[in-house]
């Protein structure tokens, strides 16, 4: 079932050997080998970082206030929403994380222009970082910044919540997948092939384009699942109050987690175990629905779970944790905002209750993180680190074998404008600030 592929040694040699071959490629240096062998900029750089704080953060309450009326006030006579209790814990590790016992600190390793997402390529330590305006830049774990391998800035815009939003590599390292909004504001999932060790930017092609009726709530996170499929999170279409009515509709690709097989057809295939693979009331690509703006999500391969952080509107931020095999679930929006009723309606069937929430007394827009599985910070192993775009403090959430929260620890680490976490090849965790810095999570 697992389709992780270790990049063959001979290919690694090929990549190195081809590091000077750039003919027939895109305008930026697309040579993958540069990321590992030809550092060009010591880090942290001395150049001033751009500070392109977005006109709106990834869908905050402030955003909603500008373009939508506040939601209906929950009333006491709303029937209790039936809920499901996911059971995503086949092999929880025996040791429980104890993040409060370690003195954690953020170490700035590099600065880029509005770094917004990070991915690693199998067999390679390089941190491939997406800049919001459209470049993909290699950063070494020691902070060395290389030349961009791709620049799609002519094909995207950065207003509102738009831009290059996500990236991930195929398991064999032969394809780079991108998630961005195009010049019409639509969400695009595109593939860029590697051949002869060189990323062929000119051969980029869109696999899936999903029109977006408003400029916000684009979601856009893109991850290669442990099942070898591409997982793509899209917001509800934007404005406020789920104005376009996508949240409770599994037959639309908005307000949903999508799951496709990039190698299973042209331009892609549908995994046979997608809940509506054969049609019916849902779209074949949809894995889950009832989401507002799942800006960031991540897999934990030890527990075979997916953690989804869904940005709230007026008052509640939400973290969901379910098994990778638990397809077809309804996460509640807009009938539920986090663990509270929202629009007065009720779903036809059960909805997933969050594993954890916090209110806007603490933040305004959750930035979902990752479960730490590295080797250096024993006390952190198994904890889910996350933050909030407005608040900036990083918390470590610990759950037990049943998925119930044990504790939610303020780690003492904080930063401005956090938009994403990334995981290095060795399991190290990184936090990206839209203000420029890339930080590694370390201990004093
Ligand atoms: Ca929800």
TrEMBL record:
Keywords: Signal. PROSITE patterns: PROKAR_LIPOPROTEIN. Residues 113-433 form the Glucose/Sorbosone dehydrogenase domain. Residues 24-98 are annotated as: Disordered. Residues 1-20 form the signal peptide. Residues 36-98 have a biased composition (Low complexity). This is Glucose/Sorbosone dehydrogenase domain-containing protein. It comes from Euzebya pacifica.
């Amino acid at each position: 079932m697992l389709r992780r592929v270790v990049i063959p040694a001979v290919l690694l040699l090929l990549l190195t050997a081809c590091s000077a071959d750039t003919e027939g490629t895109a305008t930026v240096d697309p040579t993958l080998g540069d990321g590992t062998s030809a550092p060009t900029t010591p880090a942290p750089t001395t150049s001033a970082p751009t500070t392109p704080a977005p006109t709106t953060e990834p869908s905050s309450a402030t955003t909603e206030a500008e373009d939508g009326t506040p939601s209906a006030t929950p009333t006491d006579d709303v029937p209790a929403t039936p809920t499901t209790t996911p059971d995503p814990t086949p092999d929880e590790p025996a040791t429980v994380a104890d993040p409060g016992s370690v003195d954690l600190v953020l170490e700035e390793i590099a600065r880029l222009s509005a770094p917004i997402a990070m991915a690693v390529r199998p067999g390679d330590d390089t941190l491939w970082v997406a800049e919001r305006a459209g470049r993909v830049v290699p950063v070494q774990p020691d902070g060395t910044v290389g030349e961009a391998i791709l620049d799609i800035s002519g094909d995207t815009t950065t207003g509102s919540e738009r831009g290059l939003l996500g990236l991930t590599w195929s398991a064999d390292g032969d394809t780079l997948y991108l998630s961005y909004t195009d010049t019409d504001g639509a969400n695009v999932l595109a593939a860029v092939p590697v051949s002869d060790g060189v990323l062929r930017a000119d051969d980029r092609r869109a696999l899936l384009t999903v029109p977006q009726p408003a400029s916000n709530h684009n979601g856009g996170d893109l991850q290669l699942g442990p099942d070898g499929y591409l997982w793509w999170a899209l917001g509800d279409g934007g404005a406020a109050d789920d104005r376009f009515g996508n949240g409770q509709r599994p037959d639309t690709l908005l307000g949903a987690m999508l799951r496709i097989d990039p190698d299973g057809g042209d331009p892609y295939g549908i995994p046979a175990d997608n809940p509506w693979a054969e049609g019916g009331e849902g779209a074949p690509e949809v894995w889950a629905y009832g989401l507002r703006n799942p800006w960031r999500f991540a897999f934990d391969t030890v527990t075979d779970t997916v953690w989804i952080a869904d940005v709230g509107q007026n008052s509640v931020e939400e973290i969901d944790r379910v098994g990778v095999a638990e397809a077809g679930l309804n996460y509640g929006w807009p009938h539920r905002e986090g663990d509270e009723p929202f629009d007065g309606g009720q779903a036809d069937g059960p909805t997933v209750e969050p594993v954890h929430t916090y209110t806007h007394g603490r933040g305004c827009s959750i930035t979902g993180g990752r479960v730490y599985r590295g080797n250096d910070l024993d006390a952190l192993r198994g904890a889910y680190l996350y933050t909030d775009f407005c608040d900036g403090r990083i918390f470590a959430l610990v759950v037990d074998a049943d998925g119930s929260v044990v504790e939610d620890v303020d780690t003492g680490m904080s930063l401005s404008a956090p938009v994403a976490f990334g995981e290095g090849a060795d399991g190290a965790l990184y936090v990206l600030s839209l203000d420029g810095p890339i930080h590694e999570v370390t201990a004093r």
